[in-house]
Amino acid sequence: MSESALQPHDWPGRLIVVEGIDGSGKSTQLQLLQRWLEMKGYKVFFTEWNSAELVRKTTKRGKRKRSLTPTTFSLLHATDFAHRLVGSILPPLKAGMIVLADRYVYTAFARDVVRGCDREWVRKVYRFAPKPDIALYFRVPIEVAIRRLTMARQVLRDFEAGMDLKLHPDPVESFRIFQGRILDEYDRMGPEHGFVVIDATGRINDQQDKVRKVVSGRFRNYGPTQRIA
Amino acid sequence: MNELRFFGEGLPYLGPVDCTGALITLEGTDGAGRTTQLSMLRRWLEEHGHGVIETGWTRSPLIGRVIAQAKQFRTLNRFTYSLLYASDFADRLEKEIIPALRSGFIVLSDRYVFTAFARDVIRGVDRQWVRDLFGFAPIPHLVLYLKIDVATLIRRVIPRGVIDSFESGMDMALGDDPYDSFKRYQTLLLREYNAMADEFGFSVVNARMKPERIQEVIRRVVSEFFAQRQSVDTPPAGEAAPLDAGAVVPARPDTAADPVRASA
Question: Are the beta carbons of B86 and A75 separated by less than 8 Å?
Answer without folding.
Answer: yes
